Amino acid sequence: MSTLHWRPQPIAKLGLTIDVVDGTAVDERDAGAVHALQQFHPRFQLGVWLGKDASLAWWRNRFLPAAKVGPETPLQICGRPAHRQEVSAPTDSAIGSFPTASGIEERTITTPARVHVAIAGTTASGLGFVVSWVVDADQRDAMRADEDHFIASITCS
User: What's the angle, vertex CA 27, arms to CA 26 and CA 28, rounded to 5?
Assistant: First the structure.
């Protein structure tokens, strides 16, 4: 059973609905040729991208070479062929310079190891989409019921 309270979120009349966590802000916007919706919860991130080029290949381009890319698995979403893929991204660090009142400060920002799960398919009108769930690797088991709920919530209109 999921641990959070979810609600349906239609995506700008583009023929897709997902569940989002109630009480957490949703960012929805056009970004060039892609329409995007993202939600940043303290325990995970979810996203949806719709556009003619949205595919798992497009989605995989965001990962560094150290990421472990799993196989594409076929499934059905909205009665049409779709594919699921998981990527395990290792812990990553970056150093940046930030202005402060006393000059420039160097900070190290670390991103924990994460598991990315994506589903790619098409809406009834043929528009490509990618739906993504991202969770810290050490939290995946604790969030598994919510992950399953989110993935199962993908519906088409």
Answer: 115
